[in-house]
Design goal:
single chain; mainly beta; Beta-galactosidase, Chain A, domain 5; 9-stranded antiparallel beta sheet; 5-stranded antiparallel beta sheet; 3 helices; globular; binds alpha-D-galactopyranose; cytoplasm
Length: 394
């Protein structure tokens, strides 16, 4: 297998960043981070060992902290966020994302808890797409379809980590080179994901990538939130707002049909905040296909190109999660496939709907749906997109 040396990667990545504009279908993200280039540990970022892969590779854990008291644990396996504490209305910090205590549990079967997803977040029908007349066949891992990057997506690889200094929070850069042909995708893809914990309880996730052949890219973050902090409780009592007047109905394999369907008058209308469980059991064909909510919403256009896409509120604790993005879509997944077989971090098991995901992304199956915004990345372009998660209370 062809490999790319880290030094070469840095050189190519820097050159491309310096020279070439953003991928045309991505809106320019907000301000670039200003960081020092020296890897370091500080009070705001602490490195420890999380576990060891079967081949002996060490998996590190970085704990990002800010002055408010928020802590985010990120491991180098899958770039996974294993723990993320947030205050309730009384100032009590508690973990609000589903995860496991040890590496073995992640290796044994992780339903993408906390993981970085790539090369393609969500599904590609029958694991096939064409670019410039050539058909590519991807690994299929969701029935006949390709899901979340295939059999060994970015959630299952070891990322190189570089901690960086920040005045009020912490920054962790993760890099990974996905080689030409990996999981069937064309082109060597150099990927960088930067997690920035700010001083005011925001976690910014900046995704960047460059390729040496035309390819498709759609990266996302797959944290499962439960703002109650009690993972034995379902999330159906959380109130959800989605800034989306339409969503993408799907077929039996959860592939979009191509229709952009107005949410108005349907259980998919979250334009005014409502409890997640309010209509999840409604007699609705789409809810039956998803076994609940497992659909991509078409976000209303933000003039700035970056804005509030979603917010969730847990009334009993007062915790609020806001999601800001420059992406055109967001997958709201209500944890339908959790089935009580996985051990929960603080005791008990993860039951159905013990967590919800808000995955910012381009639409599923875009490589096969010409009417959807393009996910194509060409050599000389830089894929660049940002999503920010903000945790507050009210
Ligand atoms: C995504 C998918 C779901 C499911 C979860 C992981 O959100 O849309 O169908 O596969 O990931 O279990």
């Amino acid at each position: 297998m062809k490999t790319v040396q880290p030094s070469l990667f840095c050189f190519v990545f820097l050159l491309t960043l310096l020279n070439l504009g953003c991928k045309e279908n991505k809106k320019e993200s907000q301000t670039d981070m200003e960081t020092e280039n020296t890897p370091m540990e500080s009070d705001h970022i602490v490195k420890s060992t999380f576990g060891e892969m079967p081949d002996g590779t060490t998996v590190d854990k970085y704990t990002l902290k800010n002055a408010m008291g928020m802590e985010v644990d990120v491991i180098t396996y899958g770039g996974i966020i294993t723990r993320w504490t947030a205050p309730d209305k009384n100032g009590k910090y508690d973990d609000v994302v589903l995860g496991f205590d040890d590496l073995k549990s992640y290796l044994d079967g992780n339903p993408y808890f906390g993981a970085l997803i790539g090369r393609y977040g969500n599904r590609i029908a029958k694991g096939k797409f064409s670019l410039d007349g050539q058909t590519y066949t991807l690994a299929t891992n969701d029935g006949e379809n390709h899901l979340h990057g295939g059999l060994k997506g970015f959630d299952k690889v070891i990322w190189a980590a570089t901690p960086k200094s920040a005045d009020e929070g912490a920054i962790l850069e993760l890099t990974y080179t996905s080689v030409d042909g990996e999981e069937g995708y064309p082109g060597n893809l150099d990927v960088k994901v930067t997690y920035t914990l700010t001083g005011d309880n925001q976690l910014e996730v900046l995704y960047e990538a460059v390729t040496d052949k035309p390819t498709v890219v759609n990266l996302t973050q797959h944290s499962y939130f439960n703002l109650s902090g009690d993972f034995t409780q379902s999330v159906l009592d959380h109130e959800l707002f989605l800034d989306a007047d339409a969503y993408l109905p799907v077929d039996g394999g959860l592939i979009p049909t191509g229709e952009l369907r107005p949410v108005s008058g349907t259980p998919f209308d979250f334009t005014t905040s409502k409890v997640m469980g309010k209509e999840i059991g409604a007699d609705d064909e789409q809810l039956k296909l998803g076994k609940g909510y497992d659909h991509c919403w078409v976000l209303n256009e933000e003039e700035s190109g970056f804005g509030l896409a979603a917010s969730a509120f847990h009334p009993a604790t007062g915790r609020v999660l806001e999601v800001y993005t420059d992406e055109p879509g967001i997958q709201f997944y209500s944890g339908n496939f959790l089935d009580g077989t996985l051990p929960a971090q603080k005791g008990g098991v993860y039951g159905q709907r013990a967590g919800f995901c808000l995955e910012t992304q381009h639409y599923p199956d875009s490589p096969n749906q010409p009417s959807f915004p393009s996910v194509r990345l060409n050599p000389g372009e830089t894929y660049k997109t940002k999503t920010t998660f903000r945790l507050t209370t009210k």
